[in-house]
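Protein: DUF1244 domain-containing protein
Species: Belnapia mucosa
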Amino acid sequence: MDTATRTELEAAAFRRLVEHLRERTDVQNIDLMNLAGFCRNCLSKWYRAAAEEKGIPLADPDAREIIYGMPYKEWQAKYQQEATAAQKAQFAAANPGHG
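Structure follows.
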């Protein structure tokens, strides 16, 4: 497979992942972190870092809006739930020093 085709396929898969996460607003970021070790915010940081590697300045709020499909504060107000004590404990155990 040539590099251009691989890049196109990777980009398509990334777009589908972002679309899926936008549709699954019931899945909280802490659930993603606890199960997969990354969340929507991680994706937005990786997106911003990739843009910066290409010399494209991108602020964190703008990168988050690309991933969430809306301003982050709006997503939080609509969909974010308070993490349970069990979720927080699982996160703390798996990510010492993070948070």
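Remarks: The radius of gyration is 15 Å.
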